[in-house]
Design brief:
Elements lengths: L6 H4 L15 H5 L20 H59 L11 H36 L5 H15 L2
Helix pairs in contact: 4-5
Protein name: TUSC1 protein
InterPro entries: CCDC89-like
Keywords: Coiled coil
Length: 178
Amino acid sequence: RRGCNGWARRGPEGLGAVGSGRGGGAEELAGPSGGGGQEEGGWRGQSRGSPQQLAERYADLAASYSEALRQREEREWHNGRLRQENARLRLENRRLRRENRCLFRQTLLGPGPGPDQTPPAAERGEEAEALRAQLGRLQEKHRRALRHLRRCRAASGPEASDLEDRELDELLQEDEQP
C-alpha cells in the first residue's frame, strides 16, 4: 500500500528507534529544520493518529465505499427499470396514436361501407337523390344571391368598381344561360 512508511506495521515502539536506518523515526520525518514535513504544508501523505484511530477511519472509508457501491447498483437497477417502462410506454403510445388515427378516419368517413365493399344500388340511388336535392337548394341560394347583387348594383349607381361590375356581369350571364 502506498503512503505508509512502515511505522504503522512496526507499531509505536518503531517510532522510538531513532536512526535505526529504517526511515521512520520522528526526528527523521521532521527533517533538519524541525518543521514537520517536506514543506510548510504538513505531513502530506502521512497518517496521523493511533493505529486504532487509523483502523476506525479505514473501516469508515470501507463502509462508505460499500454504501456508495450499493447505491450505485440500486441506481443502475432503477434506471434499467425506468428504461424498460419508457420503452413499454413508447410502444403503447404508438398503438394509441394508431388507434386514434383509425377512429378519426372512421368518424370522418362515417358509418358507410369500407373501401372493399360497394353500396347496394338502392343506397346509391338514395344518395344520388339526396345530392340532387342539395344541388337544387344550392342553385336556388345562388339565384337569390345574384338577385340581391342586382338590387345592390342598381342602388349603388355609378360608383361601383369596374372589377365588381365585370364579375357581377359574368355571374348574371351564367345565371341567364340554361
